[in-house]
């Protein structure tokens, strides 16, 4: 019974995380962590480590799918990733120097609001419009936005995927598929960095739970990414919005339980 219950919990956790990653570049940690903590009574630090490691392959396979469909800005993605990684460390250091605050709900609330935004005001920017921005201006924008995203993620400890999607679509004017593809590309590396540091500090995880989470998240991320790359912009906006709203409500419910 315990094994079956574990499989069911990790299946639904992986499904939610994979759909969020494949559709919107959302971090698996936002979905998997609260489910492992709430239903399997796992240590929060280890739950985050398992969630981050699940994010690595899910984001990588999503990024590959988006890249294969020419929906990934690789050059500016690398520039943004460098500044995100550096300022995540800076943000973490600053956070360690100030009194702790209950800011974990920030990313959940932002997930919900972003979902509403995609349903009500879909992103209809085209690739042709994106190409109208000069390469130099885009590179500078990528550095500045990467600094902002990295610092906020390091300081608050969550919301990286949502922050990137919001800034790529609303500030940098990316077309939605390219925004998600670039976001999951960056997330694969940030999640790898976080997972390695978690396991180095906290020790080895429960390998059974780890394997199930990684496999289920990877499966659903692949399904979502394939669908997203074939969908027309209006359908993709609606699907992304619905997934984010549902996940936002579900995660808020888990947070209330804990």
From TrEMBL:
Coarse class of the protein's main subcellular location: membrane
Family: Belongs to the 4-toluene sulfonate uptake permease (TSUP) (TC 2.A.102) family.
Name of the featured protein: Probable membrane transporter protein
Protein location: Cell membrane; Membrane
Membrane topology field: Multi-pass membrane protein
InterPro entries cross-referenced by the UniProt entry: TM_pro_TauE-like, TSUP/Inactive_protease-like
The organism's place on the tree of life at top rank: Bacteria
Claim: Transmembrane helix is one of the keywords in the record: yes
GO CC aspect terms: plasma membrane
Source species of the chain: Faecalibacterium taiwanense
